[in-house]
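Q: Could you fold this chain for me?
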Amino acid sequence: MTAIKERPILFSAPMVRAILEGRKTVTRRPVKGLGLQWLEDFTPEYVAEAANSLCPYGKPGDRLWVRETWYCNHSEVQKGPYLQPDDMQDLDQAREDGDLVYAADGLSPYEQDQPTWRPSIHMPRWASRILLEITDLRVERLQDVTEEQAQAEGACTSAVESFQAAGVDRPAGFAFRDLWTSINGDDSWAANPWVWVVEFKRVTP
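A: Sure. Below is the predicted structure, expressed as structure tokens.
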């Protein structure tokens, strides 16, 4: 039987919270380094088939382990490299004790004196608490996102409510646009780039 492939993927703290709350079930990432003319020249069917072999995040059935901003107070981890300590095998207990913590959860009072958070890019596999399974994959233009898909992107609830109160027709779409530009830059939405659309579900690590 073919082994399930796993790859890391980075998420910001707000997006981690959205995943944990069940509000985020899809992510869009810019298509890079492929010579984007192939997206323009071939049929949608060919592009869809090619996406499964070219997407750097994998294909349906593959899994993504989430890298997020984190901290571990174990002396061996603080000194680096970030290897799992022999006496920290029960990670659920380490999280419960506050020995392994995540910025997305906020800081409780007794954690205020902790050193600087470790960047998500430095999170090792053993410290990851969120595992996702890819359920669907495609490529499309960024601005083709539907209102339903924008909601599944997990944009800030208060932002969506604010646009609703203002009478905007597609409040989740506008909230997602603001989220996208906050990450990728002010001109990134107008550029309407090709993006990988990766749908996923949470699975038990």
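A (continued): The longest helix spans residues 171-184.
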